[in-house]
Structure formats: structure tokens, C-alpha cells
Amino acid sequence: MLQNDLYYTLALLQVEGIGDILAKKLIQNCGSAEAVFKSKSTTLAKIEGIGKTVLKNLQDPFIFQKTEKELLFIENENISTWHYLDDLYPERLKQCFDAPVLLFTSGNISLKNQKIISIVGTRQVTTYGSEMTKKIIEELAPLQPIIVSGFAYGVDIVAHQAAMEFGLQTIGVLAHGLNQIYPKSHKKYMVKMEEKGGFLTEFWSNSKPDRENFVKRNRIVAGISEATIVIESAEKGGSLITAQIANDYNRDVFAVPGRTTDKYSQGCNNLIKTQRAYSLTCAADLLYNLNWDIDSKKIKEEKGIQKQLFVSLTEEEEKIYNYLLVKNSELIDIISLECDFPIFKTSSILLNMELKGIIRPLPGKIFELI
Question: Mind giving me the DSSP string for 133-150?
């Protein structure tokens, strides 16, 4: 973005009463942010949404002082800026009516790969939530998707770490400026994240991680991606807001089901029950619904065995698989009882699943998912 264009765009966004939607309308009508400031008041007054207060605020000289300060920060810290009309701007986010006019980024972010997935969830992530996050990302790794999250405690940071572990680009969408990091304890992950990926925000350097900023941040998390995955969520929570925004943007939403008695599965189960999200038990569910090409994609070699990314399950196998997904391991007698199959039939189903590499037997007639 040219320095002059950036200067006037920053200035326009500093005008009180002008948000992203109105700023876009002004730029569209006037041709550029600079032209907005150089247009006559009588011309601007004809644009819907422009009243006397906004016209007066456009004349405030203090906005240029704040603009110059921010521009200096951008230059000194080597921050990249993406304008919503630029080619670098995320294509899916550009389609959202309330997308930010400007985005500020750090690191080595490349959005050439259009397979972008957002992963969100509770800050009080359980062992089950952590394992499911890692499992899904590992299964998706051969397709090299970009993993987006909010760099917060819980599911967010587990998703970022798993993405880095499997060599994927990961982007943290922040609810504050790039002059700080929140939470501070996550600062130790910054260098590695910026090697392949980095951070993205719409907020200026003087912005603090205030409560309302997290809701605004969530619309970027939802809008930038092809699909949003909710790993764990209580009955209410920020990740459910992200899911709702994704629904509003006509994006696919997936939720990991859990036991009805688990506090942090309530939100996910409700999303699935009310048909606001697809049920997600493995990466294959996502690949099928997004129609991603998986014919030639394989999971990385593990112990000399090449596993297929997509394993076809019968209805009976899927029932046992979903049960073990929650339990992880269980006695064959209990599996038979809980899944409502005769013991002889359960043995046959488990044998087929073992041959497919889905489960493995343990001492004591116990079976567990691999």
C-alpha cells in the first residue's frame, strides 16, 4: 500500500463516527480516502450516513496527529498493512460487509493456500478437547491448511501449537494492537509462530485487549476461513459467538460432540442439535462436507505404515467409533452393552475396525482408538 494512501486511510478511520462500513462507502463514492478529506462538505453531505457531526469531525486536526504517530509505529516495527481493496487482503474476509478496512500483520503470513480453517473453543480446555484438537490437525496436515485461532488460553493455543508441530502455517488473530501480546504468558510462542505464519489484527497500537474487542476479533476469525471448528464450549461462550458469526457469513461450522454430562460439550452438542453445525468426529467429516479433494492425500508415514486419510466405516463401526471417541478405551462387554450389539457381533465389528487400523486391542479384552 502506498504511503500516501495508508496515511489518509488511517486518518479516515480515526474520525469519530466513521466505522468500517461508512469508511468503505466514503471511499467508494469519493474514489480514495484522500479524496474524502479533499471533497466539499456539500458533496459529502449527499452520501447516506453522513451528517453534520461526521462532517465536523472530518475537520478535526487532532486526527492527523494520531495518524502520524501510528504511521511511525508501523514503519519502525516493520508492520505490514492490508487494505480491503488490495490483492493481499484475505479474499473470504473481503466478502463480509463489515470486514475491516485495514488489517495489520506481522510475521510471514501467506494466504495463497485457500484451505483456511478456524479452530475455536473454551479457555478451560479439557484433556478430551486437547486430544481432539491435535487429532484433527494431525489428520488435516497432509492438506497443508492454514490454522487460524485467537491466541487465547485453552483451545486456541493448543490449536496453534499443534499446527506448528505438524509444520502448518498458523495465524493468531488479536484483539489488540501489535505493540503487545495478550495473554503475556503466550509471548514465548511468538517467534516460532512468525517463522511460518504470524499475527493479524485490525486494532491500532494504542488499543488494549478490552472485552468488546474480542467480539470484533471473532468476526475476523469467522470471516477469514472456509470453515470454523468449535472444539469445546460451555452453554455460553465466545466460541459460540464466533460460530454464530460464521453462520451469518454463510460459512460452514463444525462442532465436536461430547457427553451430555460434560460442561464443556454443552455448547457443541447444542450447535449440532439445532443444526447450526455439522458433527465433527474426525477430519474425514470436514473433508466430506467441504468437498476437499482427498483422493491422493495420505497421512504422514507412522511406524512404517501409511494410513489413508479417509477410512470408510459401516454404520455399526461408526457407532462404536463415536462411542470410543468419548471413552477412548473400554471393555468389550461394556462396548457391547452401550452400543446395543450382541457380544458375538461386537467382536466381529471390532475385528474389522482393527484390520482398518482404527482401534487396537489391549490386555483384559479392552479396545482403544488409535
Answer: HHHHHHHHGGG-PEEEE-
